[in-house]
Write a structure and sequence with these properties.
Blueprint (H helix, E strand, L loop, with lengths): L2 H5 L5 E2 L2 E2 L4 E6 L2 H13 L7 E4 L1 H29 L2 H13 L3 E6 L3 H11 L6 E6 L2 E6 L7
Antiparallel strand pairs: 1-2, 3-5, 3-6, 4-5, 6-7
Helix pairs in contact: 3-4
Length: about 150
């Protein structure tokens, strides 16, 4: 079983698109940098259940599984999301970066305090892109459309 299949604690799809509620997803140029960020979060008190670093190829494999599980309805919802310029566009960008060797850190942040604390440790690591996925939408922390909290 893939590590990502069991890592995400809450629903990880919306409208057929990967949408991990209450997580920060941060994109790094390579796995070494992503793993350093994960270790910084662990030194700050995060557990293995709350933070993970993954190579791009693992993200590509996970995305393929999400697509298969979503079936035809998921594909239709993904296209609708692309039309509105929402989550699917970010997922497409992330997947393209993963195919080029980028790596990711995911951090579970069920509260605003947990999100701020995690970002305080991630921001100095200079992720290329970082987003927080909440019930109400996506908060851009770094990279495209970023607005720091």
């Amino acid at each position: 079983m893939d590590r990502l299949d069991t890592f995400f604690k809450e629903s990880d799809t919306e409208w057929g698109v990967f949408y991990p509620k209450h997580y920060i997803l941060a994109l790094f140029p390579n796995f070494a940098e992503a793993d350093l960020a994960k270790e910084a979060l662990k030194r700050a008190g995060r557990s293995d259940e709350d933070v993970i670093s993954v190579r791009g190829e693992e993200v590509v494999h996970f995305a393929e599984e999400v697509l298969i599980k979503g079936g035809l309805w998921g594909m239709l919802m993904t296209e609708l999301s692309r039309t509105f310029g929402t989550e699917a566009l970010y997922a497409d960008q992330d997947l393209a970066a993963a195919k080029e060797g980028a790596a990711f850190v995911a951090v579970y942040c069920p509260t605003e305090t947990a999100k701020i604390d995690a970002w305080d440790h991630l921001e100095p690591m200079h992720p290329l892109i970082a987003r927080y996925y909440s019930f109400g939408g996506i908060e851009h922390l770094a990279g495209n459309e970023s607005k720091n909290p």
